[in-house]
Write a structure and sequence with these properties.
about 290 residues, mainly alpha, three-stranded mixed β-sheet, two-stranded antiparallel sheet, 9 helices
């Protein structure tokens, strides 16, 4: 069963199904959230990004927007679905990724500079001022990957609890992300989080930004585009709890699904922060940002 078939058969309840074999179907050319590449190597993209690095890159993108040529079909080809911005960009998985703290050094969020520019260009050419376009484009990518970190951290809490109670800490997160390539539910939830807070840093243009980002996200691949199915009060919490139950090996088909686990995932919206790069830490280590 493919992701498309699953969504068609079960409608917007696809994520509630206990056996989702289609998630084991390998997809080409992307980094599985939280893991190094297939060789086991961590990327070597230089030092963590500083506030100064961020400001310099943001300035370059703003200048490119203001000095660049006029847009060519900026709204993604209208309703035609082909040849527009979304087809050119690919999904977020091609633009940014997260490496787990479980792999030691150089863990953090990796942001593709070309993608940052192209998302900013898309917003700018559709009426969002340059400053807001650059900022919101970065936070779209950052929030998606940051959600993966929050899931990682929540599962670590559960693994440690099991370890204390049984004497053996499981490696549930590693096993799960070694099987599902990627987890459609986790990607849907990450995009739901990114979309929920899109535009909140620039309230005057919030609706326009959120609508534009939504137009991009719904044209992505399976899971990524299905964020509306796991969005909204009540549904998001249940879906997050379902995801954590699955990662821990507890499924609906054996009636051992655990409700209420969503409280362990408490991501910051970053809607009000004035810092160039969010100050997020985990057990004394910073969640660094790297550019590639």
């Amino acid at each position: 069963m493919t992701g498309d078939q699953a969504v068609n058969e079960f409608g917007n309840r696809w994520w509630k199904q206990p056996l989702r074999e289609w998630e084991n179907k390998p997809l080409p050319d992307f980094v599985i959230p939280g893991r190094p590449n297939d060789s086991g190597d961590l990327p070597s993209n230089g030092d963590p990004v500083t506030d100064r690095d961020f400001a310099e890159e943001a300035g370059r993108i703003r200048r490119r927007l203001n000095d660049g040529p006029p847009p060519r079909n900026p709204n993604g080809g209208g309703g035609g679905g082909g040849g527009g911005f979304e087809d050119e960009m690919g999904g977020i998985e091609a633009c940014a990724y997260y490496i787990s703290f479980r792999f030691g050094r150089r863990w953090g969020i990796y942001i593709g500079l070309d993608c940052w520019f192209k998302y900013a260009e898309y917003l700018f050419h559709n009426g969002v001022p340059a400053d807001a376009a650059v900022d919101e484009a970065f936070y779209l990518l950052y929030r998606h990957e940051y959600f993966h970190f929050e899931v990682d951290k929540a599962i670590e809490v559960l693994e440690r609890a099991v370890g204390i109670s049984t004497g053996s800490k499981p490696d549930a997160w590693i096993k799960y992300h070694g099987t599902y390539n990627p987890s459609l539910l986790e990607e849907a939830l990450a995009n739901a989080f990114a979309h929920e807070h899109a535009g909140k840093r620039h309230k005057k243009f919030a609706k326009k930004i959120k609508d534009l980002i939504g137009t991009v996200l719904v044209r992505m691949g399976p899971g990524y585009r299905d964020f509306p199915d796991v969005s909204g009060r009540g549904v998001t919490g249940e879906a997050r709890s379902q995801l954590m139950s699955e990662i821990m090996g507890i499924h609906r088909n054996d009636q051992r699904f655990v409700p209420g686990l969503q409280a362990l995932i408490r991501p910051n919206s970053f809607a009000e922060t004035t810092q160039a790069i969010p100050r997020v830490t985990y057990e004394g280590e910073r969640l660094n940002v790297y550019f590639f």
